[in-house]
Amino acid sequence: MSFRFSVRTQDSVTSARTGELILPHGIVQTPVFMPVGTLGTVKAMSPEELENIGFDIILGNTYHLYLRPGDELIKNAGGLHSFVNWNGNMLTDSGGFQVMSLQKFRKITEDGIEFQSHIDGSSHLFSPERVMEIEHNLGADIIMVLDECAPYPCTKRYAKESADMSLRWAERCKIKHEQLGGEQSLFGIVQGSIYDDLREENAKELISIDFPGFAIGGLAVGENKEDMLRIVNLMDRVLPKEKPRYLMGVGTPLDLLENIERGVDMFDCVMPTRHARNGQAFTRDGRLTVRNGNYKEDFRPIQDDCSCYACRNFSRAYIRHLINVKEILGVRLTTLHNLTFYNTLIKEIREAINNNSFSEYKNNFIERYTRSDEGNIR
Amino acid sequence: MSFRFSVRTQDSVTSARTGELILPHGIVQTPVFMPVGTLGTVKAMSPEELENIGFDIILGNTYHLYLRPGDELIKNAGGLHSFVNWNGNMLTDSGGFQVMSLQKFRKITEDGIEFQSHIDGSSHLFSPERVMEIEHNLGADIIMVLDECAPYPCTKRYAKESADMSLRWAERCKIKHEQLGGEQSLFGIVQGSIYDDLREENAKELISIDFPGFAIGGLAVGENKEDMLRIVNLMDRVLPKEKPRYLMGVGTPLDLLENIERGVDMFDCVMPTRHARNGQAFTRDGRLTVRNGNYKEDFRPIQDDCSCYACRNFSRAYIRHLINVKEILGVRLTTLHNLTFYNTLIKEIREAINNNSFSEYKNNFIERYTRSDEGNIR
Predict the structure, then answer these.
(1) Which of B71, B93, B236, B265 is catalytic?
(2) Does the first or last residue of chain A, that is N or C, have fewer Cβ atoms within 10 Å of its Cβ?
(3) What separation, in Å, do the N-terminal and C-terminal C-alpha atoms of chain A show?
């Protein structure tokens, strides 16, 4: 078995924990933040840069890669790792979320999700079996079951029917996955919207199917933070301690802290890369909209004590100029900085947990991060 | 004096020569190709990447930098080198060519060039004196006189009047430049369109004003190759052997070979970077349109024997995919490759001249480069 997870340190006060995830392409220290490489590239970065920052697992989006360049082509290239030249670990989602968020025309039945390509309008079916074939062609180390990410808000009835169907899909995925064989690990995804009883029921059923890891899906889709944190608290209670928990699509630096406190081990989010393209940089003092006029003649780095290439070599004024005139280097530098910020944060959190000072670290971080005026969206 | 040029090896058959240009930011081996960093960044590249490729001089465009972020801001940042974090040498053009090519509304008088910003329509005047102030604020190692780049085609009368005015501007530039002082070196620019007698007269006058280096301007603007090469031959005869010759805005790999043969020492061109953004890669076998369908499942590198990061790590199929889905990494990789190609070519040319085998090198290069079908635009 090329998958093993072990908890290293359990925080004495909260559910925060560090652990080690052993995967075919190396060891991943948890909690871990995984940058998103939708189309086989973490936008604006080279794999060398990601490795230098210290990432050892990145995401790919099945939906996007299936459409372009196609999973068969990637299989012929020797798989996704080889195609994109990434020697670390990879995780692919199932495409379910992407279909929901990108498609106007889709039809969900027990069979799966019928949809039209957002590129050429062609028709496609993502059944649980088909998605397993695609994810096996891509060859990521961790792959995800097909699920329906229920819209928010949705009625309890819709949420239940959707979560039940996702559960049946999860079973079908597991069967197909085992038929296909190989070294990839298939994670289940808990659904049930913001309804506690549905979530608990769904999680228990999923646990009984048995997966090496569990994702919490259907959050960060518009619900308020209390709902998110309550569901994660519940999951912390229900999901097995000895298996990794992955909170999909989350989130801000503060989200990371709050959810790590609630026992989450894995995160992915487009936030650091997307904000970077929008000229927003994460700093210890909150978010900095580097394209703002304030920074026109500000010759300090984005963040004084940051060790990234951007902060070691360039000023806010220069990066602002680059972003304003739409030069690629601007986006490269903000992306590099934001990803460095996220990876530094998660590394420091791991150290704090190992030193039994997680709550202190969290409080200090939040105190400074929320002190300034600009960091109003956390 | 922080400028010195010496010819190292003079080819025994042609006018090709190698030399050394000593500038405030280090030694430049000639012939040299200078990548264009219009807005203070060679598009898609970091200064570290340019240095790793081996470039030791890059361009900035005065017109663009004057408008955004402004030469005063750059001066406050400690000059262009410091602002963009480039430790090698820099050259700025005078903005004359940019005004001609980018402006619909401009008025040329003896005073200088009045124009409206292509960004906000505001009115500006580039007089020879003003341009010297701006180029001094930017602080490049080599700066260029303000000239009018006559359109092609133009009447002989227009060409003469224009070249004569450019000459008077050159004198005014030199006076202002000397008043302003400092370590920068001011190059003159020969004009005269494709009229041999005008060119010769213009060059001689410019020589008598006395500049440490001479550029050949007003070529690569639509004239045919024979005209270009004839003018460069003429310049080779007229311009002093002991001073560097800079052919502005040129060109293709074959242009470099032909003009080095005719005694040119310095080149700049957007071609490697611009074609890269368009999905075209330079190879020893001609240009390769990597976004073409042919390369969909071509898992070979762009060029087998290339040592650049793109060719060492990625396939044509992957780069094609990136370019097709408009991912920044695609443009980064083709740009890195094309600039590596240009710098490798010019380095090999220098070695060939030093080994007295320039003509052999040139013939072999052209034979292979033009053999394949795809390299039809050289």
Answers:
(1) B93
(2) N
(3) 40
> Rounded CA gap, B42 and A328, in Å?
10
Q: What is the DSSP secondary-structure string of A137-180? A: HHT-SEEE-------SS--HHHHHHHHHHHHHHHHHHHHHHHHH
In the predicted structure, residue A377 carries a pLDDT above the cut 70: no
The CA-based angle B67-B73-B75, given to 5 degrees, is: 115
Give the number of beta-carbon pairs within 8 Å between A and B. 102
Q: What ipTM did this prediction achieve?
A: 0.97
Q: Which residues pair with A53 in a beta bridge?
A: none
CA distance B236 to B245: 9
Q: What is the domain partition of chain A in residue ranges?
A: 4-270, 276-369
Whole-number average pLDDT of chain B: 96
Query: How close is the nearest chain B Cα to the Cα of A55, in Å?
Result: 18
Q: What is the pLDDT of residues A145-195, one digit of tens each?
A: 999 999 999 999 999 999 999 999 999 999 999 999 999 999 999 999 999
Tens of pLDDT along A233-269?
999 999 999 999 999 999 999 999 999 999 999 999 9
| Ramachandran class of B292: left when φ > 0, alpha when ψ lies in -120 to 50, beta otherwise | beta
Name the CATH code of domain B4-270 (choices 3.40.50.2300, 1.10.1740.10, 3.30.70.270, 3.20.20.105): 3.20.20.105
DSSP states of B44-111 as a string? Answer: T--HHHHHHHT--EEEE-HHHHHHTT-HHHHHHTTSHHHHHT--SEEEE--SHHHHHHH-SSEEEETT
How many angstroms separate the CA of residue A73 from the nearest CA in chain B?
7
Residue B297 DSSP symbol: T
Beta strands A89-92 and A142-144, pairing class:
parallel
Structure tokens that stand for A367 in this block: 């105190």
Contacts of A313 in chain B (CB under 8 A): 47-48, 85
Nearest by CB to B297, which of A73, A315, A327? A73
Q: Which residues pair with A58 in a beta bridge?
A: A90
The rounded distance, in Å, linking the Cα atoms of B166 and B270 is 24
Chain B residues lying within 8 Å of A324, measured CB to CB? 68-69
Cα–Cα distance, A199 to A205 (Å, whole number): 10
Q: Cα–Cα distance between B166 and B300 in angstroms, integer?
A: 50
Residues in chain B, how many?
Answer: 378
Query: How many CB atoms neighbour CB A312 within 10 A?
Result: 10
Per residue in A2-22, pLDDT (tens digit) is 899 999 999 999 999 999 999
The CA–CA distances, whole Å, from A278 to A325, B110, B186 equal 13, 44, 40
Longest dimension (CA), chain B: 61
Interface-testing mutation among B36, B38, B41, with chain A (most A C-beta atoms within 10 A):
B41
Which residues partner with B142 through β-bridges? B91, B185
Q: Which of B277, B318, B328 is nearest to A273 (CA)?
A: B328
In Å, what is the CA distance from B150 to each residue of B107, B147, B153?
13, 9, 8
